[in-house]
């Protein structure tokens, strides 16, 4: 009887030790690297840092945002594609390096096969902006100005092949407009170009547009959404003039291709909870954007759709990088 009691105690001690070891292993998990393939301070970096806190809380793990900019986002994206598939590295990407650039030039990674899609994070419609002082007062006036014989209208973007560039190319083609492209290296320089009158309009993300309008020096002309946004009822949807016109920037999370199912499920579950957290959702809604998670399959479909659509736009306009 005594030996049986000691045996039971030994088993209990072993079970307790096993649980303690498992908990210790959880505690020593290294920080999660959230790779942003752009410089600090831009829209993608800003949204990633908004997600950083709730993601860390749901993972019960430190999350560190790392900026790996360069080559239109492909350097940071390649870094994740080649990272150890140990569940401790994520890409905070968008359709730039994940759908647009791969259709315009060769990249060191295969966008569809070298990364494991987890979920979308947020969607931001692009907004057509102008200077409140020097630009046209309405979308209709801009169109009239561009169509005037001998008009010399410049538009800006954050670079050749960027979503803003391709969006304006489609806007010009659909509207039968002739405008000159002035590429910049970053959204802040686009804003400066608008204020100085070097460019007359530019598509920017809804987050950038909100910050610009609050400065009192910029004006929204139209939203590249299927219909007017409830939060911007006085700003027309460009689709009201050009039927079906739409351009939305999306953000998504990806893991290295070889990431295990167990780690992928753990990461995605935490990401979805972070996306649905009230503070994250409210901040995006206040800036005319939407926090929205998806399945991995829906994200893959989104990538393929954008690859096809924007490749057609670039091919028609003979754009390459």
CATH class of the largest domain: Alpha Beta
- Rounded mean pLDDT is 91
* Total domain units: 2
Order of helices and strands: HEHEHEHEHEHEHEHEEHHEH
Low-confidence segments, given as residue ranges, are none
CATH architecture descriptor text of the largest domain: 3-Layer(aba) Sandwich
Structural class: alpha/beta
C-alpha-based Rg, rounded:
23 Å
Termini separation = 80 Å
Large-scale geometry: globular
Strand-residue proportion: 15-25%
Name of the CATH homologous superfamily of the largest domain: Bordetella uptake gene, domain 1
- How many distinct beta strands? 10
Number of helices: 11
According to CATH, the fold-level topology of the largest domain is D-Maltodextrin-Binding Protein, domain 2
Give helix % range. Answer: 40-55%
Major beta sheet summary: 10 strands, mixed
Quaternary structure: single chain
Q: What would your notes on this structure say?
A:
With 321 residues, the chain is an alpha/beta fold. It folds into two domains: 29-124 and 250-317, Bordetella uptake gene, domain 1 (D-Maltodextrin-Binding Protein, domain 2), CATH 3.40.190; 125-240, Periplasmic binding protein-like II (D-Maltodextrin-Binding Protein, domain 2, 3-Layer(aba) Sandwich), CATH 3.40.190.10. The protein has helices spanning 2-27, 43-59, 74-81, 95-104, 139-147, 163-175, 187-196, 206-214, 261-275, 278-286, 296-317; strands spanning 32-36, 63-67, 89-94, 115-131, 154-157, 180-183, 201-205, 218-223, 248-256, 290-291. Strands 1, 2, 3, 4, 5, 6, 7, 8, 9 and 10 form a ten-stranded mixed beta sheet that branches. α2 (43-59) links the parallel β1 (32-36) and β2 (63-67). The longest helix is centred in the first third of the chain and has 26 residues, at 2-27.
